[in-house]
Amino acid sequence: MTFLRNKFIFPVIFTFAFFVNSIAQNNVGINTQTPDSTAILHLESTTQGFLPPRMTTVQRDSIFNPAQGLVIFNVSDSALEIFDGVCWKASYQVHCDDCFIKVVSSSNADTIDRVLTDSVQITLQITQIAGSPQNIALSIPTILPAGLSYNFVTNPTFSSSTVTLTFKVTPFTQDGTFPIVIQALCGPNVINIIYSLTILPCYKLFVTNSTSNYNVADDFYNTYPSVPQTQAVCVVCDIGSGVTVISDTTIEPAVTTGVFPAGSVLAIVNNGNVLGKGGNGGTGTSTTSTPPQTGAGGNGGNAMELQLNTTVVNNFNIWGGGGGGNAMAYEISYTFPPPANNITLGIFIGAGGGGGAGNGTGGGPPSGVIGLYFYTPGSNGTGGILGLGGDGGILNYPIPITIGSLQITLNPNVHGGDGGDYGYPGTQGYFNLTISATILLNFPIIGTIPIPVISNVNIPIPVTPPAAGNAGYAIKRNNFTTNVPDNIYQTSFLKGQVGP
């Protein structure tokens, strides 16, 4: 019986003592006999913690009319939350609208090789964990190397969302490994992500001496003989300041990219002069010319031609060769039938076209003329950066022809087309001819008395003007792409057409 009494008496005595102590001190201590006087409940432990009610957001929001100061641990957000009378605030919030986020990147490091791709893309998963839904601003505060660009889609973004970030390079972007800070800002909350981007280098070519008919691919494989010619490459070709690249013929451009393996990346930086060959002036037509001559002006040569997609940065002169002027000529001839062996005799009158800028040759006299010819050649175009188109020939002096007592005077006014300056076509000339006739009568004592028969009668000669030569292209794309828009240019540094 004594044991049973003790079993019930001791808990009662402890509970009564605890109640009396609590009334006396107005606070409670657990694991301490001296609770702090400012605390109504003072807990002490080195092995255990305080565990508030744990619940999800849905369960938390089901609490009816929560008291101000009510505390829970939200297992959905992993945050200790307090109801402040208006909203449930996480322990790190000051105001209900304070925005807090977490950001997860799909990658922390990438490499761009510029051959397989010129860009890299990552996704940022943004989750708003506190505060009212609002815009989140994204930025990159890091100073990036020149030529490296980026783009967020979408920025700013709203509340929890997925954002795509793309980094893009050019062949000129500095190579190396670069740490990049990606920053997200929402209210007072700033999240920084450290991302590493490696940009592999391109091969470099330097044209330091003036040359002609320059082929980038040929120079590359001569400079880097160990690179397999089946391997796609990234190449940056720099034409140096003071260097002049020309062509010996209008058939070939001054600079051609040459042929690289598929997928290669090429950029040309021009700090010098890339000058197309001038077109030749037209030579007058004769029915007996061998080979036949059309009289048309020759087209100017192209300054640059592409054989793969190419980025062109032009810091000085890329000029297409000037077109040659056309020749203007007319032949009055007669072919004798057998047995005179089909000999053709006649009078040939005309003027040659001027050569285009870029050392185009002026149109000379026709070959194979049997008889009389009166012809003024065109002048050559000049080369270099001061080069100009040559002038067309001019024939404007009287041509006397005496047949017995009849004197015929032909009065030509003929001008061959002028050669075009760089980037310009040649011009078309003109042909006009009048005739005068005088009979010379000889009288004894008096002497010779001229009797005019006709004076300056226009001869309507059906001369079809041959075509003048077109200017050479500044950049002939050959259906490849370049960053220079298609157009016809006449600027300080770009003369001629850029096009297909």
How would you portray this structure in words?
This protein is mostly beta strands and 500 residues long. It has two domains: 100 residues, Sandwich (Immunoglobulin-like); 253 residues, no CATH class. Strands 17, 18, 20, 21, 23, 24, 26, 35, 36 and 37 form a ten-stranded mixed sheet that branches. A five-stranded mixed sheet has the order 8-15-14-10-12, with no helix packed on it. The longest helix has 24 residues. The chain is rod-shaped and about 165 Å long. The termini are far apart. The N terminus is likely disordered.
Question: Tags for this entry?
Answer:
mainly beta, Immunoglobulin-like, 10-stranded mixed β-sheet, 37 strands, rod-shaped
Helix content: under 10%
CA-to-CA gap between the ends?
115 Å
Amount of beta strand: 35-45%
Averaged pLDDT = 89
Number of domains: 2
Principal-axis shape: rod-shaped
Structural class: mainly beta
How many β-strand runs?
37
- Which consecutive residue ranges, at least 5 long each, have pLDDT under 50? 1-24
Please, how many helices? 3
> Rg from C-alpha positions?
46 Å
How can the largest sheet be summarized? 10 strands, mixed
Summarize the topology.
Elements: H1 2-25, E1 28-30, E2 41-43, E3 54-55, H2 57-61, E4 71-74, E5 79-83, E6 88-90, E7 100-105, E8 109-112, E9 119-130, E10 135-139, E11 149-153, E12 157-158, E13 161-168, E14 176-186, E15 189-199, E16 203-207, E17 211-212, E18 214-215, H3 216-223, E19 234-239, E20 244-246, E21 255-256, E22 265-270, E23 273-275, E24 304-305, E25 310-314, E26 317-319, E27 328-335, E28 344-351, E29 371-376, E30 394-395, E31 399-403, E32 406-415, E33 430-443, E34 447-458, E35 475-476, E36 487-490, E37 494-499
Parallel strand pairs: 1-2, 3-4, 8-15, 16-19, 17-20, 18-21, 19-22, 20-23, 21-24, 22-25, 23-26, 24-35, 26-37, 28-29, 35-37
Antiparallel strand pairs: 4-5, 5-6, 7-9, 9-13, 10-12, 10-14, 11-13, 14-15, 27-28, 30-32, 31-32, 32-33, 33-34, 36-37
